[in-house]
Structure formats: C-alpha cells, structure tokens
Sequence to fold (81 residues):
Amino acid sequence: MNCFYIPTSHEETINAITNSTFVFPKIDSEETLKYGYWNENFGIKYQKYEPINISKGTYKGKKIKANRITSELKRFFNNKK
Fold:
C-alpha cells in the first residue's frame, strides 16, 4: 500500500526529521484511510477482558495489571514527555 513513507536508512530518517526543506513522496490518501480502518479493526474483540490502559485492565470484573517489563516501559515513556 502506498500509504506512508518508510525511510531506507538511518541517514534518510534523520534528514526527513531535521531538514525543513525535505519533500516527502506523494502518498495515496485513499490508501491511508484503508490502512487506518484496518489498524483500528484488526484482531478479535475481547469477550471477558476490558482494557483500562496499556498495562491495566479487568478480567471478568477483577482488576489485573501487566508484568513488570510492561510497567517499566510505560514509566520510561511517560518520563520522556
């Protein structure tokens, strides 16, 4: 699908981020809508689990939380903000 830009190297990525005159290749806006729809609707719907956030949820009404690795990743990314 021609719906997003994928740099081919680290240098190209840095150039796209830092160069204000960088021109991104044209993408098909209809393809981006198709990809967005797929991304929002893929997988199987939860039947007994209700997510609260990335690391917490309820299973059959009982609160559960993710393992330590997920919790550490969440804390790391929250500290980056």
Remarks:
- The chain is about 45% helix and 15% strand.
- The mean pLDDT is 86.
- The helical segments are 10-18, 29-41, 68-80.
